Amino acid sequence: MPNRPHTDIRTIPANAYVEGVYSIVNPQIGTTRAGKSYLKCLLRDATGEIVTRQWSFDESSLGDLSAAGFVWAAGHTQVYNGQIQFIAEQVKPVDVDEDELTALLPSTAFDIDAMFQEVRSILGTIGHPALKALADTYLADEELMAAFRRCPAAVSVHHAFIGGLLEHTLQLLKLADVILPMYPLLSRDLVIMGLFLHDMGKTVELKWEKGFDYTTEGNLIGHVVRGAIWLPVKAAIAAKAGERIQPDALRALQHIILTHHGLPEHGAVKLPATPEAIFVAMLDNLDAKTATALAHTRSDSVRETDGPFTEKVWTLGTRLYRPDPLK
Amino acid sequence: MPNRPHTDIRTIPANAYVEGVYSIVNPQIGTTRAGKSYLKCLLRDATGEIVTRQWSFDESSLGDLSAAGFVWAAGHTQVYNGQIQFIAEQVKPVDVDEDELTALLPSTAFDIDAMFQEVRSILGTIGHPALKALADTYLADEELMAAFRRCPAAVSVHHAFIGGLLEHTLQLLKLADVILPMYPLLSRDLVIMGLFLHDMGKTVELKWEKGFDYTTEGNLIGHVVRGAIWLPVKAAIAAKAGERIQPDALRALQHIILTHHGLPEHGAVKLPATPEAIFVAMLDNLDAKTATALAHTRSDSVRETDGPFTEKVWTLGTRLYRPDPLK
Amino acid sequence: MPNRPHTDIRTIPANAYVEGVYSIVNPQIGTTRAGKSYLKCLLRDATGEIVTRQWSFDESSLGDLSAAGFVWAAGHTQVYNGQIQFIAEQVKPVDVDEDELTALLPSTAFDIDAMFQEVRSILGTIGHPALKALADTYLADEELMAAFRRCPAAVSVHHAFIGGLLEHTLQLLKLADVILPMYPLLSRDLVIMGLFLHDMGKTVELKWEKGFDYTTEGNLIGHVVRGAIWLPVKAAIAAKAGERIQPDALRALQHIILTHHGLPEHGAVKLPATPEAIFVAMLDNLDAKTATALAHTRSDSVRETDGPFTEKVWTLGTRLYRPDPLK
Amino acid sequence: MPNRPHTDIRTIPANAYVEGVYSIVNPQIGTTRAGKSYLKCLLRDATGEIVTRQWSFDESSLGDLSAAGFVWAAGHTQVYNGQIQFIAEQVKPVDVDEDELTALLPSTAFDIDAMFQEVRSILGTIGHPALKALADTYLADEELMAAFRRCPAAVSVHHAFIGGLLEHTLQLLKLADVILPMYPLLSRDLVIMGLFLHDMGKTVELKWEKGFDYTTEGNLIGHVVRGAIWLPVKAAIAAKAGERIQPDALRALQHIILTHHGLPEHGAVKLPATPEAIFVAMLDNLDAKTATALAHTRSDSVRETDGPFTEKVWTLGTRLYRPDPLK
Amino acid sequence: MPNRPHTDIRTIPANAYVEGVYSIVNPQIGTTRAGKSYLKCLLRDATGEIVTRQWSFDESSLGDLSAAGFVWAAGHTQVYNGQIQFIAEQVKPVDVDEDELTALLPSTAFDIDAMFQEVRSILGTIGHPALKALADTYLADEELMAAFRRCPAAVSVHHAFIGGLLEHTLQLLKLADVILPMYPLLSRDLVIMGLFLHDMGKTVELKWEKGFDYTTEGNLIGHVVRGAIWLPVKAAIAAKAGERIQPDALRALQHIILTHHGLPEHGAVKLPATPEAIFVAMLDNLDAKTATALAHTRSDSVRETDGPFTEKVWTLGTRLYRPDPLK
Amino acid sequence: MPNRPHTDIRTIPANAYVEGVYSIVNPQIGTTRAGKSYLKCLLRDATGEIVTRQWSFDESSLGDLSAAGFVWAAGHTQVYNGQIQFIAEQVKPVDVDEDELTALLPSTAFDIDAMFQEVRSILGTIGHPALKALADTYLADEELMAAFRRCPAAVSVHHAFIGGLLEHTLQLLKLADVILPMYPLLSRDLVIMGLFLHDMGKTVELKWEKGFDYTTEGNLIGHVVRGAIWLPVKAAIAAKAGERIQPDALRALQHIILTHHGLPEHGAVKLPATPEAIFVAMLDNLDAKTATALAHTRSDSVRETDGPFTEKVWTLGTRLYRPDPLK
User: Fold this and answer.
1) How far apart are CA A195 and CA A284, in angstroms?
2) d(CA E186, CA E170)
3) CB contact under 8 A, D29 and F308
4) Which of A196, C3, C305, D289 has the most CB within a 10 Å radius?
5) Which of the residues B26, B28, B29 would you substitute to probe the E interface, choosing the one with the greatest number of E C-beta atoms within 10 Å?
């Protein structure tokens, strides 16, 4: 967002002037005891979010703000209930271009192009010709790959940022790359392809342009089944191009995708029933849980004043202990 | 067992003469319809087990056979109900020395000395002085290390063979060694020590000299708590030798041991609540499940005539599909 | 099976001569104490099954019997352990044609052609043009419809007979036809199509020609997801023929198929989240449970000598009380 | 409520004068920052509820308002926090007669007399003389039938309105009436009686005159057991009048009542173990779940501005998708 | 059984002559390989059970044996498969009188009259007049009290013997008698009455004359609800005799009976929701579990040769350790 | 707190002057609409807690208040939202001595010295010399016994007050003392020692000086395992003093401690597998549940205006009915 001034939310001090373009979340009309309407909402950028009020507000503009999703805001901060609050004087809908969008949403700390290149490079090591052709068919789908590069891995919890799906997928591929030599009986090619595709359906399960949320597709069908539905379509394209993948191999890949959540109560369609499916489900779980734990205890977003224990982290079922006792 | 002839059970054909020293399992008296007593039992060696009958049997020797645990047997095989059965003419109790014992129990396919040396070597990379001293204290406990080198990792299911605990522990240490660089926020030293110690209590939970089984200690206390109980004792020894480990670090290690089964219903005392404890529990699960799946589908013990699906494998909750579809 | 004599298994008395073509189940070699091999197996036809032995048996012919699946057998019955047993003198592999196959497998008591015609007729009442075109596309798939007409609804438990899927589907369609007027806010067309398609994937999940069992496809993917994968393919065919179904409607149908088992732990991919999906799941459950209960308590297969309570019926979780207290 | 003016709550606009008799819910004393007491409460009628404040309020009259349950209120509405709020100038306790009560509580959209007549008429088709006499004994209990006609079927969720129990019971009887011909092995008379009686205990489990709630009886005993306790009493009355019902039939009816919630964790005393009990439990579940889903997605109370997904509906375990995709 | 010879089953040696009257369990026809029918069954008396065969047996007398339930048998014992087996020469149906019945069924080790007197005596300490009158009404029901004195407390597991219900009830009353002074806020009278009545319904849930089993009543209704159904009937009798029990007290007693299994999944109709109901459920559980554990580890039926661990005891979920480590 | 004035919180009326030393809970900065900072917090003493505000407050003193944990406060009460609120004019950090601490925390209603003397006295009845010596070793640990005398038994729910652990332990010992004669096969000495030690680990699991909370030790290790870890240390001390306890007895005691929560999902390390461990777990549960139920329904803290039903009590899973129906 090179051409407009922008105050990063994480750095906003009390009693300061603030202006910039922000994502607007949950705008609503409040009414003071005196009967006057005001705007209440959250503003977000890639660095955080801030409670915002505009005391003199024309109710009729609420619809425009909701529709736009992004606003230009200016005003001052003050402390209310021990919290910094943004008292805006102006809040106007704006259009944002691709670059600004990137700046407004929480995003991976790594370079997306570089990560995608690493994924390509690991897929390049697949030895089985038909599987390699299948991988190439996915890589050639530009629209899908564009989504794959930007899609978060979740609405919240772990890898909930632009590029999160790519980062998580790459981490799994790199882990597999170093681990697989220690499990020589596993089919390396199946595992690599399974990891590449296991969460691909998230590109239609989630929306991320204006805040992260589930799509109707995500609620009613889900990424697990959607990923499996795509597979025969891509295989048909690869077959037309000359590399027919055997039905058994296709089914083994579908099985990996359908079972990668491990248990039916966690969203798996079946229990994993091949060594490769079990390995993929376990590795996915290892990375998801470890990344979640580290994000709550050792990441940059942990503040010095946070206590030794987090609140209960629902996906882990417990409060986490933050200190590294060797430090 | 260099000096006595021995027919490996896996290779026994029908209608052949067989002799050798075997482990005797569940010896019982049967009675033929004609009222004659006979001996029925299983004989085992490191390669498998075989149903055995001795038709003319003196009941009074049953006690000796049970007490000995090992027998010298000779006789012929025949086919009964489609199964090869050993019709022994002689079954006599024998003493076995350490070497024979090794030959009679299923054992790791790897070299125990070499594996133990690898464990030592990875522990040697621990940077934190007190933790390193603690590791040395364990390594200096010769009785414990002797048990650690031979103990199976389980009574059945995964790594249920002599050296299984060592093999499983080493596999985890090697996995961690290559993975940890990808999780720089994890405390490498804590993870390495946690993995080394997580199942150490199995050395008193299990007995393995005469077939694998749980000890009374295993049934009433269990390896999870026993491992945690040992820790302050070892730390006290290390402290006397000059390296005092901080209470926080000790507690973090105990927490890893107490929680490495992941869920209370799987035997964890608490839910893992540090990133290191979560990582250890997930990695242990990954190796245990993957090794179990491979043993049932791709190992040498899978026979050509086995169908594509196994029976239900209880720890995995499902039948497994054996074929590698890329082969 | 017009041209060969055949004794129905249900009617076989003790000490009688029996001959006919039967399905052979689980043929195995037994050995008498005297060391002679004999054949042990079950023989089945549409009316029941009988324990069978052939005392003089050439082991080398076991493979042929297993491969054939069907045999011509002749011999006498006798009572052993209070049970009628078939002591066969001859057991020879045979080929069976389609008509004989029908005669050898348990089959619906209703006329398959007539039932299929009823299904067609109810589908004919669909008012929405695109949904109707979609139904016609399925009906035009002759291979699929041939399987749909013969497929059992399950390997055991309820509707485990040739034509069982058709009978169960028709029963649901007829129930919906009379019930839907009482729920005017439900979309009748969606419910009718959803019921028609909900179990269609069973045609590849199960095999039934030589006894009922799950296919590899059934074990690794399952009928729930397979049915959903087919839907866009059929919709594409219908679209080419001129009737494009809206994505929302397609998704609603997929959602019905994916959720018709009601709960993840019962095999649903998601919880049903539309009124139509909830209704379909509940109606399917009502018919499955009621049919199961009636089969165990009031059907022709219940014998006079059966006591008032059945054994525990696993899918219902309890023993059932047979008597109708008003009779 | 013919003789008093009454503004229906659903139709109340902002900034309007409102007066009428309403049910008062949860009256409490608030205190303004200035230290003055005010009344805060909800007012309800059959069409909805509205947040209400009376700024000048004499605390001493709170007890009277609580005791009365109904008030006459007058004042103006204003918008506060985007919600219409009723700022009452007067709130006085009043007595309400039976007609007004009907007008003040949410009530079935159908005619209670007509529905009850339909129930009578379906019960009239029972063929078994003793069961018919038993039905007549219930119908002759005027106090019970008066409660049965007005009782809601639940405190919230499904059929939570005056006449809800009658409406739900009639719906089940009508469903059974059209379905039972398709299950000829079910005892129609038992099912019809079972459906009539299955929820009869709700007439003492719930109270509805002054808002819907559980009685002490409902909390400590519950409608399931209470309904079963009544049965022998009614049977004794029928027997005195000349029709003795066999103990087996009585027990079968009690079993239906005791098991109609299907699972112990849902309140069933036993698992349903007769075909009729299973059918009743399944049909009850089908209507309850379908009615709940339709009420949240397709009923008049769904507003145009509601989004495509509801909040999570607890009894269904999920958010519901509202649109009918064929419309 | 004074007038007929009887060998106690527990004391039967190998190779001995045996005769006496026994309960016959599960009589069936077997057939020898030679085609001859024989009788196989269990014989039981109060001291144990023994596998029995009669090699020459006329099939037509099987029905008489089944119907009688008791037989006079004579023959010799031999050892088969390490187990003592009774090879009967004669097995004839007989009638047994009340005394013999007592001798043939496992029975409490205590004096039934004395125990019943103790129950009466503790009930005599109830201070509340109406509750005392209610207790007297139960005690005056001679048929019920006769059943209460003999009924086992279960079909198997704990107190599964004649007089078991009385012994268990008395143990609970005596425990409460010494414990209640330490919980002065509990209503002693309610607890005492609740304990007296909590399992009273077992007198119709179980049958015990010819081996212990559930009645149809037990399967379809159960002792929990039956006990609650009886209560108002007894209260009505007490009221006629002049002591009217308040509805609240009656309901509190019903609540204790309906909830004494603690959890719905264990058969409780509701969760216990009064201090007295919670106390009764907990005390019942304490005695049931402790008595079960002692019966499997420290009772006379534990043999010297039993190992330190029992098989898994299903109601306790685990194997039990037998030795008392202080002995 | 003899020398400073103190108004007990339970007795504070509306519109009164209040002063005293109180525990300060959760102090926070609020801001009025006018932008002025104020202090909001709870003040607690042994008799209850009160919502408190100080309108003119210097934010910079918040840290001191938090650190101190105790304050001297003075001001007036007023009614706000129907609740009495404390409007403090002064709130200053103070140090409190041991006596004041006792006065400020909720505390057992019984005399701690007398209770501890009773525990000693029951332990004095242990007959087994080594167990008795072990008990004396614990009693001789003055620091541990000081904590044992003051530690609450829980952070909330049951016995959540100073001396709660002692009161609960003594109640269990007294219950066992009167019950054990009725279970002569139980080892009295093991039960008594097991009860004395079962919750001893709570002395390091909880902190109570400044409000009750879990320690890091409690969160990561827990009292169950900590209690078991201590045991061999104490046994070693006793052994040095001349009384060596056999390993079997030590293990049996550890097993009691490790299993006293009954089920893994409630925190037990194993299922109780000895009669003594089962008895201890059941008795602990009986006292905990009964005490919880009585505290919510019949204790002094229940007010006249409370309704007949409590809110849902989470550890009991239900709302409780308060009235004693015989009163």
Assistant:
1) 8
2) 19
3) no
4) A196
5) B29
C near F: at least 3 beta-carbon pairs less than 8 Å apart:
no
- Structure tokens belonging to residue D234: 């009614």
**DSSP 8-state code for residue C57:** -
User: F90: Cβ–Cβ under 8 A, 6 or more apart, which residues?
Assistant: F54, F72, F73, F74, F75
The DSSP code for D264 is G
Q: Is the pLDDT of residue E114 over 60?
A: yes
Quote the tokens at residue C254: 């997929």
Burial class of residue A276 in the structure, from the number of CB atoms within 10 Å of its CB (0-12 exposed, 13-18 middle, 19+ buried): buried
pLDDT band per the 50, 70, 90 thresholds, residue C33: low
What whole-number distance in Å separates Cα of residue B315 and Cα of residue B156? 11
Q: What is the pTM of this model?
A: 0.85
pLDDT in tens, C97-107: 777 777 788 88
Q: Which DSSP helix (H) or strand (E) runs through D75? A: strand D70-80
| Predicted-assembly ipTM surpassing the 0.85 threshold | no
**Cβ B190 vs Cβ B126: under 8 Å:** no
- Chain B residues within 8 A (CB-CB) of chain E? 28-31, 35, 37, 216, 219-220
Q: Give ∠ CA A256-A261-A266 in degrees, rounded to 5.
A: 150
With touching defined as 3+ CB pairs under 8 A, do chains A and C touch? yes
Among B179, B274, B316, the residue with its CB nearest the CB of A278 is: B316
> Is residue E313 predicted with pLDDT exceeding 70?
yes
* Nearest CB to F229 within list B216, B222, B228: B228
Q: Which pLDDT value is given to residue D2? A: 47
pLDDT, mean of residues C149-172: 89
Q: What is the pLDDT of residues B71-123, one digit of tens each?
A: 999 998 887 655 678 999 999 988 887 777 777 888 898 999 999 999 999 99
pLDDT-flagged residues of chain A (< 50): 1-2
Neighbors of chain D with 3 or more C-beta pairs under 8 Å = A, C, E, F
The whole-chain average pLDDT of chain C stands at 88
What chain A residue is nearest to C222 in terms of C-alpha separation? A270
Q: Across the D/F interface, how many CB contacts are shorter than 8 Å?
A: 20
The CB-side HSE value for B18 (13 A sphere, CA atoms) comes to 28
Who wins on pLDDT, E58 or C237? C237
Is the dihedral angle over the CA atoms F38, F41, F44, F50 positive or is it negative?
positive
Q: Do D30 and F82 touch (CB under 8 A)?
A: yes
Pick among B229, B259, B260, B265 to test the F interface (most F CBs inside 10 A): B229
For chain D, which residues score pLDDT lower than 50?
A: 1-2
Q: Are D99 and D155 in contact (CB under 8 A)?
A: no
> From the candidates E33, E59, E219, E221, which should be mutated to test the interface with C, based on the most C CB atoms within 10 A?
E219
| Side chain identity at residue B108, one-letter code | T
Shortest Cα distance, chain A CAs vs residue B45, angstroms: 25
Which amino acid type is present at position E265?
E
Which of A221, A224, A265 has the CB atom closest to C265's CB atom?
A265
Largest CA distance in chain A: 74
B309 → chain C, closest CA residue? C216
Q: Tell me the two tokens of residue D142.
A: 């005027």
Which residue has better confidence, F211 or D239?
Answer: D239
* pLDDT at F157 (0 to 100): 62
Q: What is the pLDDT of residue C307?
A: 75
- Please report, as a single letter, which amino acid is at residue D137: T
CA-nearest residue of chain D to A34?
D80
Q: Give the minimum alpha-carbon distance from C59 to chain A in angstroms, rounded to a whole number.
A: 34
pLDDT 10s digits, E6-43 = 888 878 877 888 888 888 877 877 766 556 778 888 88
Retrieve residue F233's tokens: 């240390």
Residues of chain C in contact with residue A232, where contact means CB-CB under 8 angstroms, are 229
Selecting from C28, C29, C216 the residue whose C-beta is nearest the C-beta of B308 gives C216
